[in-house]
Amino acid sequence: PSNNYGLIISLQLLRGDIEQVRRENPLIFSRGVAITRKLGFPDIIMPGDIRNDLYLTLERGDFERGGKSVQKNIEVAMYVLYADGEILKDCISLGSGEPNLPEYRSFVLYHNNSPRWSEVIKLPIPIDRFRGSHLRFEFRHCSTKDKGEKKLFGFAFTPLMREDGTTLSDESHELYVYKCDENTTFSNHALYLGLPCCKDDFNSCPNIPSSLIFQRSTKETFWICTQLSSTKLTQNVDLLALLKWKAHPDRVMDILGRLRHVSGEEIVKFLQDILDTLFSILDDNTDKFGPLVFQSLVFIINLLRDSKYYHFRPVMDTYIQKHFAGALAYKELIRCLKWYMDRSAEVVRQDHIQEAMRALEYLFKFIVQSRILYSRATCGMEEEQFRTSIQELFQSIRFVLSLDSRNSETLIFTQAALLNSFPAIFDELLQMFTVQEVAEFVRGTLGSMPSTVHIGQSMDVVKLQSIARTVDSRLFSFPESRRILLPVVLHHIHLHLRQQKELLICSGILSSVFSIIKTSSLDMSVQEEIEMMVESLLEVLLQTLLSIMSKSQSQEAGEYVSCLLSLLRQMTDIHFQRLMENFQSKDELKEFLLKILCVFRNLMKLSIFPRDWNIMRLLTSNILLTTAQQLAPALHKNFAETDFDFKVWNSYFSLAVLYINQPSLQLENLSLAKRKKILDKYGDMRVMMTYELFNLWQNLGENKIHFIPGMIGPFLGVTLVPQLEVRNIMIPIFHDMMDWEQRKNGNFKQVEAELIDKLDSLVSEGKGDENYRELFGLLTQLFGPYPSLLEKIEQETWRETGISFVTSVTRLMERLLDYRDCMKGDETENKKIGCTVNLLNFYKSEINKEEMYIRYIHKLCDMHLQAENYTEA
């Protein structure tokens, strides 16, 4: 290789088809750019894209020396000749951008009787000249002495089309070489066209005369390879017979039957011509050929469902919209489709029926477009007959789906094929019918599906997938159709949730429904839809969540929590009011309240959403708060006074305590900017829930005693939240507890004992602060100059004991906080021991709590042992 020469090229990728590239890059095309089409076909051949290029590769040859001492210098000349012997001009292209030539001459390899050329030549032969044309290759020896001297010594040829009308196949062809001399002129091409051009040709010509003008050189051969890129010429006999069916009208039945033997590549290549032919045959004799044309159409449609040919679907769409002309075809297509469906109950082998079901989408495209063409041509004649035929077709569809398929796997496959294809026809129907009419068709169809969930898991999945695609369809986005379709969708979801089957698919459907309703939330109809969903789904959603949450690491939990939150978020005061009114008895209401409060408590306890999903956690808290506020009136309205139910009230109080203590709501741990953002959007939700808790407590009346001392600990935990307003709201509840125990027992020993015990354990855990100690002192003010519920004399007694107790508790708080700070800090062992001694002395001498005294004696002993003060221990 030479180091002095090099070739530099630059590349630029341009996206889009050629017309788009021309529009977007006009400067590139102003410089005389050569456009080269792909060798072979592109991924998609659009209707109207006509092409007829034969690519010929000059491969190699093996030639005799011919009595010479050295090997020959062989040149090949190639010509394209028409049936009359005329050489076709401009039918040979050596490269894009170069002018077409009447002949091709190869390069010459010096002294080589077995040359390998491997040159590719494009032959853009007009379609009308292809039949009858042939290629002739002339072989010449080029003299090295006299450079102008080229002696003809042989030739080869091949027709471009076979006798049956198919073109030269895409493969290598070994051609016979015939001897001739330099004076041969080929003026009469008929002299050699009767000869065999290759081995296959020789086998089909048994009677070849021995006295021929041109003798075959048996030791010489010549190889070429051809590849045809044509949208009009085929190499398949069966396909050619279909396209030329008018030449053999008596063989149409056989021709249509053999279409299945044509390769998919050939069918998609000639898709427009094949479809035109099928509908032409249908027009010719509908009664005779209708079923076979229908089967052929179904076969082609299903071919395009194959992943290999799926990208040809736009070709079919373009054909239907712009090239299809079968204005009468819809009648036969509807008739055949209905015939197949009606036979599904009685036929054992249902392959053809299932194929028709899978082709439903494009069959309806053809039906609708055909009807549009007919209506256009006749100004809307036979409209009523068309509508009736579609209604009857849907009766057949409902019939297929209503059949009991539990004992027939074949029928299950038929129903599954129908359900898979069904949602794809909605858009076609919307071209001919109103939104409400199409929705009624769909509702009737979905409603005809068996309500049982035990017909088989695979069928359940198909059924739900069909519903999912219905929900995701354009039809479902219209409020007027949603009002019709939503009940049947919810019915099937309810059935599956009740059985705890196919939970993931059901959650996906519900998510889609909620998204659509949220998008349409300004429509009045949405309120009715939400009410429908509350009635059908709320209770079964809660039951599903309770079941899911009881399992560890259930992947459906997050999905169903989101569904529940979406529903609750879109419920208004009226929805909650109607929900409460719809319960037939208090037992039903109680069961519902316990379920929803239990689900809410589980949401607080379990990490359904990742820790860093702060926005989702805040939104969840906001929805739970709003719902809790809506549920509160039901408690004091239905379960207070003589109808008091401890379980329901306790469940609500437990939820409130968990809610207020949520880590995600502790705003003090956030930066000022984040805190402000949350407060601006939601306010302090802890305060709002505390008010709810306080109001409910106030509504308990005499039933407060049921929560003393049980709720002292949880309520005390709420007061340890470092939020002043929360504490101010909660402290009076402790006064109330003391007041009610004093009234019942004449003292508040229970409250006192529980309060001291919980204070000790909570502060030991690290909760509480200096502000808390000061705030607790405010409790003494509650025993000031305000009259209590007791008679004055009893009030005096209660007042003194209360103040004494609160003072003691405040002093206990001081010692507890000192003890906690001492233990947390880097204090000396002696100081820690001193704090512990102060605390245990307080328990012993001031408030006489022996069990607390003993607890701290043990702690003091452990500290002495740790410090190796064995005597003191």
Automatic annotation (TrEMBL):
<dbReference type="GO" id="GO:0031267">
    <property type="term" value="F:small GTPase binding"/>
</dbReference>
<dbReference type="InterPro" id="IPR027357">
    <property type="entry name" value="DOCKER_dom"/>
</dbReference>
<dbReference type="Pfam" id="PF14429">
    <property type="entry name" value="DOCK-C2"/>
</dbReference>
<keyword id="KW-0597">Phosphoprotein</keyword>
<protein>
    <submittedName>
        <fullName>Dedicator of cytokinesis 3</fullName>
    </submittedName>
</protein>
<dbReference type="InterPro" id="IPR016024">
    <property type="entry name" value="ARM-type_fold"/>
</dbReference>
<dbReference type="InterPro" id="IPR037811">
    <property type="entry name" value="C2_Dock-B"/>
</dbReference>
<dbReference type="GO" id="GO:0005886">
    <property type="term" value="C:plasma membrane"/>
</dbReference>
<dbReference type="InterPro" id="IPR035892">
    <property type="entry name" value="C2_domain_sf"/>
</dbReference>
<dbReference type="GO" id="GO:0005737">
    <property type="term" value="C:cytoplasm"/>
</dbReference>
<dbReference type="Pfam" id="PF23554">
    <property type="entry name" value="TPR_DOCK"/>
</dbReference>
<feature type="domain" description="DOCKER">
    <location>
        <begin position="844"/>
        <end position="873"/>
    </location>
</feature>
<feature type="domain" description="C2 DOCK-type">
    <location>
        <begin position="51"/>
        <end position="229"/>
    </location>
</feature>
<dbReference type="GO" id="GO:0005085">
    <property type="term" value="F:guanyl-nucleotide exchange factor activity"/>
</dbReference>
<comment type="similarity">
    <text>Belongs to the DOCK family.</text>
</comment>
<dbReference type="InterPro" id="IPR027007">
    <property type="entry name" value="C2_DOCK-type_domain"/>
</dbReference>
<dbReference type="GO" id="GO:0007264">
    <property type="term" value="P:small GTPase-mediated signal transduction"/>
</dbReference>
<dbReference type="InterPro" id="IPR032376">
    <property type="entry name" value="DOCK_N"/>
</dbReference>
<dbReference type="InterPro" id="IPR056372">
    <property type="entry name" value="TPR_DOCK"/>
</dbReference>
<keyword id="KW-0963">Cytoplasm</keyword>
<dbReference type="InterPro" id="IPR043161">
    <property type="entry name" value="DOCK_C_lobe_A"/>
</dbReference>
<dbReference type="InterPro" id="IPR026791">
    <property type="entry name" value="DOCK"/>
</dbReference>
<dbReference type="Pfam" id="PF16172">
    <property type="entry name" value="DOCK_N"/>
</dbReference>
